[in-house]
Amino acid sequence: MYSIKQVAAMLGIQAVTLRAWENRYNAVTPERTESGYRMYTEEHVADLRWLKQQIDQHQTSISEAVRMLKEKKETRFKADIPMPTAPPVPNAEEAYEHMTDQIYDSLYHFQGERANGLIDFGFTMYGYDSMFYHVLVPILVRVGDAWEEGRATVAQEHFMTQLISQRFYQFFHLFPIYPHLPKVLAMCPEGEHHQVGLLLFSLFMRKNGAEVLYLGANTPEEGVFPIIREQKIKLVCLSITDSGLVNTCDQLIDRIREEFPHVRFVLGGKGFERAEHARYPEWIMPEDSGDWQSWIEREYFTQ
After folding, report:
1. What's the CA gap between 265 and 268, in Å, rounded?
2. What are the tens digits of pLDDT across the range 180-208?
């Protein structure tokens, strides 16, 4: 459930406009708390995003867009943007795989509008947690594999990765920040171009209330030290998939610790998990993301 402030920030629609759409056009009807505050479900958010698309991309009036939305719902999600009905599959894993295939195929053929429509539908059907872990992350992994094996061009890899990454970023600001938690700097060192794990862990930290400064893949060391100093960073997250970069990370950690002895570290990715002689094994995250919560609470949030 999202507040009107969160929905406004996520969709780029002013709160006064959301209220007007509700009162004048009955666009969506949010639920209300006991105190009378509006609370929006993921389905409400998906509907509002669709309305905004019709207005921004097709110059449709809000009244006409609402009429189209209601008609679309009555006809099982038939709309200008191709939208699937719930896949006729017997279990959740097959449903996720079905959704993954459709979105990947759309992105592979540069059909960004259709891919976003499918993602919106997926959020409505399965919720954002399931979509992130079971659909979007596997797509990013598949994209990376396709590029390395020559089945996807550089342009395709960039387009697909950028669109999915943007969907991750949209959710960063939806969670409250708790000032008593460590301020986090998340980055992949120079030479590491895969950021799937880093994105996922950064979102995990934001869900736990930590403020995250996300620098992303292939981050040069130059400029990192001023950020740690000026932003009062307390926790640095490094992610690598190439175990050949472990020594590079160890040296970077040593330099950071020398200048900022208070800073702590979280190390993740296949590169660290496969390292036989990592200098700081106590900081390596569990491979299974299901174990992250207990680990992070034990190692950081309780101290």
Report:
1. 10
2. 888 999 999 999 988 878 888 888 888 88
Q: Which residues pair with 207 in a beta bridge?
A: none
**H or E stretch covering 47:** helix 42-58
Query: What whole-number distance in Å separates Cα of residue 289 and Cα of residue 284?
Result: 12
Q: How far apart are CA 208 and CA 108, in angstroms?
A: 33
For residue 61, the cross-strand partners are: none
Counting other chains too, the contacts that 6-13 makes at CB distance below 8 Å and 24 or more residues apart are 6/40, 6/174, 7/40, 7/44, 7/45, 7/48, 9/173, 9/174, 10/45, 10/170, 10/171, 10/173, 10/174, 11/45, 11/48, 11/49, 11/52, 12/52, 13/48, 13/52
In angstroms, the CA 127 to CA 176 distance is 19
Q: Which residues pair with 265 in a beta bridge?
A: 236
With a CB cutoff of 8 Å and minimum separation 6, the contacts of 125 are 86, 99
Q: How many CB atoms lie within 10 A of CB 35?
A: 5
What six digits make up the tokens of 183?
Answer: 């301020």
In tens, the pLDDT along 112-134 reads: 989 988 888 888 777 777 888 78
Residue 220 has a pLDDT of: 92
Answer with the residue of higher pLDDT: 144 or 227: 227
Please say whether the beta carbons of 115 and 106 come within 8 A.
yes
Task: Compute the distance between CA of residue 136 and CA of residue 134 in angstroms, rounded to an integer.
Answer: 6
pLDDT at 111: 92
